[in-house]
Amino acid sequence: MRIIGCDLHARQQTLAILDTTTGEAVNLTLMHESDKVREFYSQLPRPVLVGIEATGSMHWFLNLMEELGIECRVGHPAQIRAAEPRKQKHDRRDADLILKLLAENRFPAIWLPSKELLDLRALLLHRHQWVRMRVRMQNALQAIALANGLRRGPALWSYDGQAKIAFLPLMPHAAYRRSTLQAMYKNMQSEIENLTRRVAEQAGNRCGARLLMTHPGVGPVTALATEVFLGDPQRFTNRKALASYVGIIPREYSSGGHQRLGGVTKQGSPLLRFLWGEAGAHAARHDPELKCFYRRKLVQKGLGKARVAVARKLGIRLWIMLRDEIDYQEFCRRGQMQQKTVRPVVGMPETGNGAKSHRPSDEATRLPES
């Protein structure tokens, strides 16, 4: 068997190859030109095991390995780097490190989404990019309107508001800029509506997204993004692992009895965090428990931390609904049954709606805490 540690880059890859039969080790560099990579791997005697670090440009290589029937494992970059204590880093050492972890069966392999999930992620990211560009156009048009005394607020984006911008008396270059921005805004609005319909169609065809849309404040975009970015919900052991994966837990630098907390880690998907934050603001208006939780955190922590806490609580709810394949009504019923079956203990303080208690409970049926 041949084990290959591959340090993959955009233009080249550095390989550390070990033949387990003879013990021979070879280092070489392959340039990504023409069909050199395909020719090299297709000529290797089977079986072959390849290990790489996770990177954004790795999908073509994974597809090639799948086509050639070669097992390829993708590792967590931070955990791979943590296995090397020396403060020296270059391509050959990185390839040797990956090879060593593979040979010693210590390679930190990560979960990979399917091609279908990757395609749905591309749809959601494409729509989000168009929405961000539309916001930039709106800000530019709003600035033109305010500079000329036109203050309409949200009504500026109606047909009448756009007509008033179009008839503003401007200098030639400013008028050209105004007309171009309005044309771009109209095209973007049409394309975003088309992408939104496609997202709603895909969300309606997936069972998990349909269950998530029963939660107040969760629409097709948030439901579909939650399902495709989380993937298999069973791979998260608990809610803390989920929050860490998405990046909505605080940084911590505690030592010697001193606790130091920072901002959220932001290690996961920025789009998923953004959508949970937006959906959490809407859900807090319609869900009684989330509304009480938000108001309490607003008094205790302030606006920013309260919105993050609601987003985290909503995300954990959606994860439980996905994991247990239940809708919002069943989720609420389980929470009510859990509260009814709790027996008061002498000396245990009373807890209000949404407050933490120190009683043991089943995480699968308990309303998640934040």
Topology, element by element:
Layout: E1 2-8, E2 12-19, E3 25-31, H1 36-42, E4 48-53, H2 59-68, E5 71-75, H3 77-82, H4 91-103, H5 115-147, H6 159-166, H7 172-204, H8 207-212, H9 220-230, H10 239-246, E6 250-252, E7 261-264, H11 270-286, H12 288-301, H13 303-324, H14 328-340
Parallel strand pairs: 1-4, 4-5
Antiparallel strand pairs: 1-2, 2-3, 6-7
Helix pairs in contact: 5-7, 5-9, 7-9, 9-11, 9-13, 11-12, 11-13, 12-13
Number of strands: 7
Instruction: Provide the helix percentage.
Output: 40-55%
Q: Nearest-angstrom radius of gyration?
A: 26 Å
Give the uncertain stretches in residue-range form.
346-370
Shape: globular
**Order of neighbouring strands in the sheet with most strands:** 3-2-1-4-5
User: What is the makeup of the main sheet?
Assistant: 5 strands, mixed
Notes on the protein architecture:
The chain is α/β, with parallel strands linked by helices and 370 residues long. Helix content is 54%, strand content 11%. A 5-stranded mixed sheet has the order 3-2-1-4-5. The chain has a two-stranded antiparallel ribbon with strand order 6-7. α5 (115-147) runs antiparallel to α7 and α9 crosses α11. The two termini are 49 Å apart.
Short description:
By secondary structure, this protein is an alpha/beta fold.
